[in-house]
Every structure is written in C-alpha cells, then in structure tokens.
Automatic annotation (TrEMBL):
Biased composition (Acidic residues): 20-34
Keywords: Hydrolase, Protease
Protein name per its UniProtKB record: AAA+ ATPase domain-containing protein
Domain of life where this protein originates: Eukaryota
GO CC annotation terms, alphabetical: chloroplast
Coiled coil: none
InterPro entries: AAA+_ATPase (IPR003593), AAA_lid_3 (IPR041569), ATPase_AAA_core (IPR003959), ATPase_AAA_CS (IPR003960), P-loop_NTPase (IPR027417), Peptidase_M41-like (IPR037219)
Species annotation: Chloropicon roscoffensis
Biased composition (Basic residues): 1-14
Amino acid sequence: QQPQRRRPHRHTARPPRAYDDDEDDLFDAELDEEYGLKDSERFSSPATPSGAATSWRNRNAANMEDPSSYVGDFDDQEGGDPAAKVKRSSPVGQFFRGSRKQFENFKEELEQWKKTPSGIRWLHVKDKLYPQDSIPPVGDATVSYARLLELLAQRRVKRLTILNEGRDAIVEVPVPNCANDFSYQEAIEGDVSAREPEMIYCGEAPEWSMEKDRFYCPLPGDLWRDDRFLELCKANLPRKGEDGKIAKDSRLVTDQCYLELVVHQPDYYWMTMGRVGGISKPFGTLLIVQFLLTLWYRNKKRKEEEMRKQKDYFRKSLAKAFNVKGKGGETKSTGVDFDDVAGVDNIKSAVSQVMEMLVSDVSFTKAGVKPPRGMLFYGPPGTGKTMLAKALAGEFKVPFFACNGAEFVEMYEGIAAERVKHIFNTARANSPSIIFIDEIDALGKRRSAFSDDPGVQEREQGLLQLLIEMDGFRPTERVLVIGATNMATDLDEALLRPGRFDRKFFIDTPSKQNRFKILEVHAKNRPLIPRLGHPEHDDGDALLTETARITPGFSGAGLENLLNEATILAVRRGEKIATMDMILELLELQSIGLKQGGLEPSEPKRRLALFHAARAIACVLTPNATRLKFVSIAVRKKDVTGLVFDLLDATDEELRWWDVLYLDRISSEGDFSVFVRSLLPLCVGKAAEEVFQGSGSISQLSSADMAKACELGSYLLARTELGGTLAKGNPADREKQLKYLVSWARDESSDFVKVHRNAIGVLASRLLEDRDVYVDEIE
C-alpha cells in the first residue's frame, strides 16, 4: 500500500444530514475533502470496490440532496427560526450562499483534477518531497507490542503504519460499533450452519464514517523475523474463494476490520530536496520582500529625479549655447560670421571695436577703461539684428548664449529672476562671452506703479534681477549683453541708462546699395539666381541690381524671402534660372495680392472705370509725377485695385512727387503754373465725373481726392514760395490763396478731360474687361 496523504480526523459514525445547528461536524468533513481526506482508489480498503472510493458528497448522492435544498426544507418545518429565514433571504445571505457554492464547485473541480494522471503524478511527487506530511499524527496514547499482537488477533487494527525502518509503528483502531456498516447487508449463500440459519454478513464500513483511535507502539528490532506478527498480518487480510466472494473464514464479525499495512520508507534524495525547499521558503519570502522594496525604492528615486528635473527645468534658463563644449565634447557654432551679414558695415565696425575691448586688447584694461556692459539693437523687424549678434559671436569665437525675453516669464513666481541669475552665472563661468536676449521688451518693459497683475509682477522681478546682474553689486566681468527689440521706446529707463546698455544702434531698412549687397550674400548659395561670376549664368549682376532698385523699403529678411520664392518658382516651372519677370510677379503678388475676379457689369462699374482712367492718364502726362505702374479695377484683397505706383525710395532721393516738383520747380511756364499742375492728378477725377456724368455729379472717391488736393495745396503754400509772400502771411489770406489755387486746378482739370476725352474712354473700356493696363499701353 502507498503511504496515505492526509491528516486523519475523528469522524462521528452517523449519516450526513442537512445544515442544522450542528453544522460544524459536516463542515469539518468538507475541510477533510479540501485537504485530501477522502477514500481514493489508492488508499481504499481491499474489501471496498474501487468505484466506492469517492468523496463524501458523491457517496451520499442517492440519500442526500443538494445542501441548498435542505435549507429550504428546514425552513418549511414547523418551529423554523423566522430570523434565520430573513437572514437567508437577505442579499447578504444570498451573497454568502453564492460564495459557498462557488467554493464547493472549486473543491469538486480540484478533487476531479487529483484523479487525473497529472494530479496523481503531482501527489506522488509531493509524497516524495514531504514524506512527513503523510505520517498521521499521534497523541500520548501508547500500546505495547503484546497489545498490538492481541489487537491483530482480534482483527481490530484498521491501519498499521511502520516507521523508522521497523522501529516504531502507529496503530489505528476503530471505536467499538464503528467498524461495520449495517446499512449495506448481504445474505450469506451456500453452506450455512444449522446452528446459525439467520446469519447475515455486514461488510466493513467506509473509512470516512469510521471513528478510530490512534496509538504509538514501539516495535522490537527483529520485527520482520517474528513469524507470529507476519502470520497475524496475513490473517487480517481478506481472502476470496473460488467464486470470487469473501471466504467464510475471512468474513468479519462485529467490530472487526481488514488491515492496511503501510511501510513508511522515504527516499532520502527526494526528502532532502523537500527539506531544502522548506528551508528556502523563508529565504524566498525575504527575496520577494527585498525585490518589492527595491522596486519601491527605485520608483521613489525615479519620482524624485523627475521632480528635481522639473525644478531644474523651471529654474534653469532656456538659452541655447553656441561655441561652448557640450557633454560629448562637441562645440556647436553659430554658423554665421561677418561675411554673411551685409548692409550694416558701419554697425559692424562699431560692434567689432566693443568686442576687441572685451576679448583681446589689454591696453584698455591698463588704461583703466571699463568695457561696455551692453549693446542694444533696435529697429524695424527683419533688418538683421539677430543675424548681426550671431555673426559677432561667430567672428570672435566667443561663447554665445541666445534666448528670448518671453522665455524668462512663467506662471510660477520667482522663475524669471532664477532664470536670469542662471544664465548670467553660466556666462561668467565661460567668460568672455555674449548673452543675447531677443525681444528684450518682453522682459524689460517699462515698470508701472499701478499694476497688480501677478504676471506683471513676475516680469518686473525678472527685470530687477537683470538690472542687478548688468550693473549692480556684481564685480566687473567680461560678459557682454546684447538686446534686440522693435520697440525701444517701451523699455525701462533704468535699463537704457549708461552702465547697462552703453551702446545703442538703430538698424533701419537698407538703402539701394545695401540692398544690393544683401542680395549678393543671399544669391551665393542659390545656383538659379544669375549674378556676376556665376559659372553658367553670368549677367553682370543685372538681375540683382534691378531687384535692389525696385524693392525700396524691403528688409534683409524680405529680400532673402524674395530670392527664395523666385528660386521656388523657377524650379516649379522647370526654368534654368530665375528671371526678372518672376521677380516682378512675386513683388506684385506680395504688394497687391492675387486677382480675385472683377465687379459685376453695372453703371457704378462704368463710372469707376472712367474715374480711374482719367487719373491714370493725368499721372502719365503730368511732369515729375509719381511713376505709375499699371491701373486696374479688378478685385484684389476684397477691394478694387485702382492705380498702382512704383515704390519710391527716399534714400535714392526719389521723394514724393510734390517734393521732387519743389526741387525742380524752375520751369519756363512759371512757378504758379507748375503749382497748379501738381494738383491736376487729384482734381481730374471729379472733372471726369462732371464731363461724362453731367454737372453736379460727385462720388466718395472724388471727394476724397479733393480733400487730398486741399491738403497738398496747404502744404505747398506754407512750406514753399510757390504761392508768393502772400502765403506766408495771415492764415486768412492763406485760405483765400488756397481757394483760388484749387479753383484754378479744377478748371485746368476740366480742360484736360475734354482734351483727352477719347483716350479716357478707350482706357475705361479696357478696364471694364478687368484687365491690368500697364503704363506702356497707356502712353
């Protein structure tokens, strides 16, 4: 027989019943099932069929219904506890009853698995690893070896477990009246003695219903040589006759049972493995605890590191460092030097002198000269302020820290001051160096005593820290601060005083010559732009010269974008080079926009065409007037195009047309005649409406032009000598002179329209076709 794997328990020999007040015994039986205390096939008695070795619930399925049904039957009995009924019908009772059913289902599935080959193999392995678990416990009760032989002779021993190589034994003896099962009776057939005609054989009771006593018994050393012991053991085993039934001399009487001999001989190899596993359990638990503590500690450190990085992110400045060795030993340059900056030659020489004092020339230091602490670049946007600062750092190869004024201000209080302090400390550690703050007006705006906005207060704290760092309690260091802004008038006065921003440079839009130099710089790396010295398309800088002439008011960024768009247009059209027509097309697109169609044919459209046709012809035929480019009444940018003039460049002495008229006012026609002709392009629109529409016709456009004519006449009378000494006297006399002048200009305009009536009509008809009529066609 295999060693039994269970902890024996004393059971009361009584049939199972429903859940009543004595429910503990039944629950103990269920616990026995959970821990394997059942009659399996391996541990069944030889007299018990293999099919009878089932669990307690399966054995009594024929005599016992589901436990839940007993609950209902018990409740229906008289004297049932009403409170128990309420408890069982409550949601809490239903929950526990459902959990109990799930627990029972799980136990049944586990028991079924133990009967499978894999479950049986696991039980074998477990018995080998932990043989001590299969030894039934015993109390203080002890029997002698003689008493053991007596019990064997009486067939009273159910199980005999021999331990320690035959030196000890555990004896299990059924309690009287618990060894036989009287519910299963079998009449004896065959040879029946006449003295016992009514003899009935009762088989051995199942072990789960058999209550037993357990004793410890010391055995002699020559146990296996004791013939009487071995004969008694054989006599206690069931013997079957030829018919397959229990032999007569082997049948049991009351309180007798068949013997199960269990020899406990563990495998020391497996037992050692089990002991090692048992010893390693606490160490495994400690390892798991240590692993969990390590995970917790690492997670805590990671969170602390993230919080520290977040604090450092808000505390450190966001400036980009150039010409400074990084973590990998690499140095990132600005990529710009003075050769890449054009059009600001005078400013380049001035800032170079400042950098020479800061970097290399020690003669200034010996002379006690304090180098400038800051330079301010201000002017229109796109004029190269940032490019000049980068070129300065690239030319002298000094550390350069570039940041934006808006990067200092955050929603948290004190961040602006911390970032200003951090960037200055970094620059001092890498001196001589340059700190460039673009859009410094976001940080250094003028302070106000009437603002309670927290955002303004945070910005002002950053400004105060900047003032202290530039010229406060800090010693003199070789750190140059360069600020760039488009709104120098909004900066705080304390920031602009000497000792902080000592040098201020205004960078305006470039002149014609400087525009040409800027175009030369940006055309070097564009092979589709023809220029002087181009390997394939050398045009002697004709394209760049003409582009510089027709782009007054363009900044350096605007000129670079123009060449870039021209290159894109040439590539898109498959051209080998960019032409002047492409440049003009792009300029027209940028200035007046794309044509979006025309107005619907109507009488107001015809009057608008006549109005603009008369103005266009007057501008073409008036000497020294503003150069007209084309005229159109097509819709662009949600408005009628009208007259489009060439851009004037004041740096090229191409002033407003009345200023040019003032400079060239010497004429054979006389001063007053030239004065009147200067008002002709503004008065001709109203004259055209009166000639073509009739006297008294007026529109909003003509009224606006007449107001401009009065403004121009007042300017010329007050600032020039064209009106004579009368215009410089009493303002009342000046008003009379202006009224006379405008009346004369209106008469001249009427005569002009009548003379050129046919030309105005032809031009108006072309404008009605939504065409762009250029000046060559008008002439």
